[in-house]
Amino acid sequence: MTEHRTPLARVRGLGSAKSGTAHFWHQRLTAVANVPLTIAFVLIVIALLGRNHAFAQQILGTPLVAIVILLFIGSVTYHMRIGMQVIIEDYVHDEIAKLVLIMLNTFFAIAVALASAYAIFKLSFGV
Amino acid sequence: MTGSKAPARPLSPHMQIYRWPLPMLMSILHRITGGGLYVGTLLMAWWLIATASGPNAYATFGNFINSWFGRLILFGYTWALAHHMLGGIRHLIWDTGRGFSPSEREWLSLATAIGSIGLTILLWVVAYLSIGDAQ
């Protein structure tokens, strides 16, 4: 059988990295975003320490605070999903177990993100 | 292959053989603290959901986090956060190609270790002072 495809076309996509540097770049992008967002989040937490429910509810529903926490949730959960995936890929070598864990990792990150974001939306818009 | 055993070649030394240099310890701590922060986001989700749910759920969360066990977890979480952030900044510096000489590596690793402990203590002092203000 004659091979019409070039050697490059045949090997493209067969490497272990699959998607190139996107993973690395997103890790750094969210890492940089996490620095100011985490500082802001910690300050918000400190401001609410020992306060009663009504006060915490009111502050967390304030637009600026809510937006900062939403950004924090998004950046942090994306960052941790990528990070945990790297850990899984480093230590789990059974192909099925690896795929299952990477799936569960994604489910966990999305569940935490959505649950936290839902709470902020509820605090912001009531109901 | 006639025998099932591999020939007894010398193996290259690995982690069990080397004395652990500080950057190596900081490297694995970066991964461990990252894993801890990962699980700890459940605490953040619980706090936010409890606040959104109402006074009873908020009180339940408060009872947990104000217990000695809850505070211990939060203290560890604070250190993990500080360590992972400073370690991450160190990695960002390395990403630019700077800070790789032996003395710089050592200095950056030491700064991560001491900085994370210092930052944790500072945050808890501020936290206790601001709780005092609120009550």
Describe the protein's architecture and organization.
The complex is a heterodimer of chains A (127) and B (135). Chain A is an all-alpha fold and 127 residues long. Chain A has one domain (27-125): 3 helical TM bundles of succinate and fumarate reductases (Up-down Bundle). Helix content of chain A is 79%, strand content 0%. Chain A is built from 5 helices and no strands. In chain A, helix 2 (22-48) crosses helix 4 and helix 4 (63-91) runs antiparallel to helix 5 (95-125). Chain A is elongated, with a radius of gyration of 21 Å. The model of chain A has no long low-confidence stretch (mean pLDDT 92). Chain B is elongated, with a radius of gyration of 22 Å. Chain B has 135 residues and is mainly α. Helix content of chain B is 78%, strand content 0%. Chain B has helices spanning 22-53, 55-66, 68-95, 102-134. The N and C termini of chain B lie far apart (77 Å). The longest helix of chain B has 33 residues, at 102-134. Chain B has one domain (22-134): 3 helical TM bundles of succinate and fumarate reductases. At the A-B interface, helix 2, helix 3, helix 4 and helix 5 of A face helix 1, helix 2, helix 3 and helix 4 of B.
